[in-house]
Write a structure and sequence with these properties.
The complex is a heterodimer. By secondary structure, chain A is of the alpha+beta class. Classes of the chains: A alpha+beta, B alpha/beta. At the A-B interface, α7 and β13 of A face α1, α2, α3 and α16 of B.
């Protein structure tokens, strides 16, 4: 007589509801996947919360990641979840110290994919020199999420003395862009189903902590920093113009966009100034600091360039001087960029 | 980047603008037909390069703008049916019907999918044999051949779950409607280069002759547009009125015979309502009788009846070049891209939205 269960035993290679249920499978998952990958990254898995030793003022931020597809040229959702939060801390002038990791997994997610994402998270955390101190895993029924969603929160000390914020922006300040635009959005779009174009564009996804630290350690007078994620440069510039109650004027010819991104944008009727980036930022610095800011950023590996200045008026408006020398309003995006039909 | 940089060169643009200024001895009013051209004019600030006397009027060539409210309401009604997957070009989704828009009904659970080609909608049909796939076939002569090809292929593949909600419009009858109006101000036209890439420029010859109006077939890059304007000014100053192809790298005199052939196989001209303007004879395309089974309105028993526009909206005047968007009392206040009263404020290619986006502040 055969007493073994006739139902195939799968729990090793697929995420099941029980992996989020608090029992043995969850303990195994934490031990064999998370704890192993996060060795040396400060995970305090045996307590309900992590205890941190940070003196003085801190910056604290949170972000959720739902990118589709979860693996894209130049990165994946895990790497994005680490750098997204690290970069948000860096944009306030903080030194990223620790992040939390909240995972929402869809029942049926292949374990191999989860392992790949967790290893990618660990690698990214080591690159950005940030600890993953606490976490949480939930599993939802099949169909209730798209493979995996991630939330990360991050904290880091504000060692920098000045207030890096739109309210510090002054007329005359220089606008410095850290590199070419549009690669992340284009890479993700090209790898989605339904768009029949092939490119070798890779996402610009990277940690911005090191270049920001280099600029802050120099004598550059930084007034505001903003990473150019959703909505791209145009949206970030509009938000700052609005908060700072001044005008940002950009020079279209000075803004670098690779031919591959330009080509894809022309084809799909999109504007690279509105495309999302995950490794680009705008630095607004005192006019006398512009040259040394560009120099510091270039030494840190960014292809930084001066793309415009801050003016007093028209208040709350961003202007763009076109390749032909005419100036117009650069508006905030309404909703999602939708491809034009012809 | 090849095919882009050489048509956006600042120095060459200034040279052409200087030639326009030299040639023009009196004020002239020129209309660009296509919304893509309007967008480029506003985006690059081309009007700023022109001498004061050259006025650009913005034509009705924004396909999203002129799609009648009744058709949008029909698309929304179809999308709401649980048995239907509505496939559409992306920029149609934001356009408000009389009560809501496709983006909103999608959020409420309707299966509305953005496709980049009607042939992608055919693939959706093949993959979902138990659902009805309706493609929202809108646009000018540019979208008509691929929209026709999808229907032609559906017929060949005996697909019984594919149909098209058709709202196709044609440029030449619209030009004639504009020129026939008592208050017509347009003295020359920049014809839409991509439309002429399909249909050729020959069908514009009788219009140029009958109304004694110069027509320059024009592309969409800044230098293309300046070249088209220069050609119009040259003809106007010389008292000529003919069709000149200034977009030879794409448009040929006889167009694209293969594209025209599939268009004529599947579609035939008929009267068409233009949003904001009204009905123009022979200005639309409908499915020929042998393809009528693929007509979504017939299949689902709809009729895209006329739905009244908000009274304050002067879209019709704007689309026919009789008013600038800024002449509207609601512009930028009661009518903005976030809350549009009329179609030209909806699409980025609409003249009102272009003015709002690029020109609402004096710079």
């Amino acid at each position: 007589m055969n007493l073994s269960c006739p139902i195939e035993h799968h729990h090793g290679d697929t995420i099941l509801q029980a992996h989020g249920g608090g029992g043995r499978l969850m303990a195994e998952l934490i031990q064999s996947v998370f704890a192993e990958a996060f060795v040396g990254l400060g995970l305090q898995a045996d307590a309900d919360s992590a205890a941190l030793d940070i003196a003085g003022p801190v910056a604290f931020t949170t972000d959720s990641f739902v990118v589709k597809p979860i693996f894209f040229p130049g990165g994946d959702i895990g790497r994005l979840a680490v750098f997204g939060t690290v970069n948000d801390l860096a944009m306030r002038g903080a030194t990223p110290q620790a992040i939390s990791l909240g995972l929402i997994l869809e029942e049926g997610l292949p374990m191999a994919k989860l392992r790949r994402i967790i290893e990618s998270i660990a690698t990214a955390a080591r690159e950005a020199d940030v600890q993953i101190v606490t976490g949480d895993t939930k599993v939802v029924e099949r169909g209730k999420c798209d493979g995996i969603y991630i939330n990360t929160s991050g904290i880091g000390p504000l060692n920098h003395g000045s207030d890096i914020h739109p309210r510090s922006v002054r007329p005359g300040d220089a606008l410095i862009l850290s590199g070419d635009l549009g690669r992340h959005a284009t890479a993700v779009m090209a790898s989605r189903e339904g768009i029949a174009f092939e490119t070798n564009i890779e996402s610009d996804l990277c940690s911005l902590a090191a270049p920001i630290a280099a600029v802050l350690a120099s004598d550059v007078e930084v007034h505001c920093l903003r990473d150019l994620t959703r909505g791209g440069l145009a949206s970030a510039a509009n938000e700052i113009a609005n908060s700072a109650n001044c005008s940002l004027s950009l020079n279209a010819q000075a803004i670098p966009v690779t031919d591959a991104v330009r080509g894809a944008s022309e084809l799909l009727g999109l504007d690279p100034l509105y495309l999302a980036n995950e490794g680009r930022f705008l630095a607004i610095v005192a006019p006398e600091s512009a040259d040394s800011a560009i120099c510091e950023l270039r030494n840190a590996g960014c292809e930084a360039c001066l793309i415009g200045t801050v003016n007093e008026s028209p208040r709350g408006i961003v202007t763009l001087t076109s390749e032909l020398g005419a100036t117009r309003v650069l508006d905030l995006l309404r909703g999602e960029q939708l491809p034009r039909i012809c | 980047m090849k095919y882009l940089d050489e048509y956006r060169d600042c120095e060459t643009a200034k040279k052409i603008a200087a030639k326009i200024a030299e040639s023009a001895t009196q004020p002239w009013t020129i209309m660009e037909i296509c919304g893509g051209q309007t967008h480029a004019i506003m985006r690059y600030g081309i009007q700023d390069l022109l001498p004061d006397g050259i006025e650009l009027l913005h034509g009705p060539g924004c396909p999203v703008c002129v799609t009648p409210l009744g058709k949008i309401d029909a698309a929304i009604a179809l999308a709401r049916r649980p048995d239907v997957i509505l496939c559409s070009f992306g920029d149609m989704l934001r356009v408000p019907g009389s009560a809501t828009d496709l983006l909103t009904v999608r959020a409420q659970g309707a299966d509305v999918r953005i496709v980049y080609s009607p042939l992608d909608a055919l693939t959706v049909a093949a993959e979902n044999p138990d659902r009805q796939i309706v493609f929202f076939a809108i646009g000018f002569e540019t979208t008509a051949p691929p929209n026709a090809m999808a229907i032609f292929q559906a017929a060949r593949q005996n697909l019984t779950n594919y149909s098209a909600l058709v709202s196709q419009v044609l440029v030449p009858p619209a030009i004639e409607a504009i020129l026939s109006h008592d208050e017509a101000r347009v003295q020359a036209f920049l014809a839409a280069g991509h439309v002429c890439t399909i249909t050729g420029s020959a069908e514009y010859l009788p219009i140029a002759a009958r109304y004694h109006v110069p027509i320059a077939v024009t592309g969409f890059e800044p230098l293309d547009i300046l070249d088209g304007i220069l050609e119009c000014v040259r003809q106007l100053e010389a008292g000529e009125a003919t069709v000149r192809n200034c977009y030879a790298r794409s448009a040929r005199d006889d167009g694209n015979p293969t594209a025209r052939s599939i268009l004529e196989t599947v579609f035939e001209p008929a009267a068409q309502t233009w949003r904001g303007i009204g009905e123009i004879p022979q200005s639309g395309l409908v499915l020929r009788a042998e393809y009528a089974q693929f007509d979504a309105e017939q299949r689902f028993g709809l009729n895209g009846g006329t739905v009244p526009e908000p009274a304050e909206c002067i879209a019709g005047e704007v689309l026919q070049g009789r008013c600038k968007p800024t002449a509207c009392t609601a512009f930028g206040t009661r009518c903005t891209p976030d809350s549009p009263l009329g179609a030209p404020m909806v699409s980025d290619e609409g003249a009102c939205a272009a003015y709002y986006r690029f020109r609402r502040v004096a710079l």
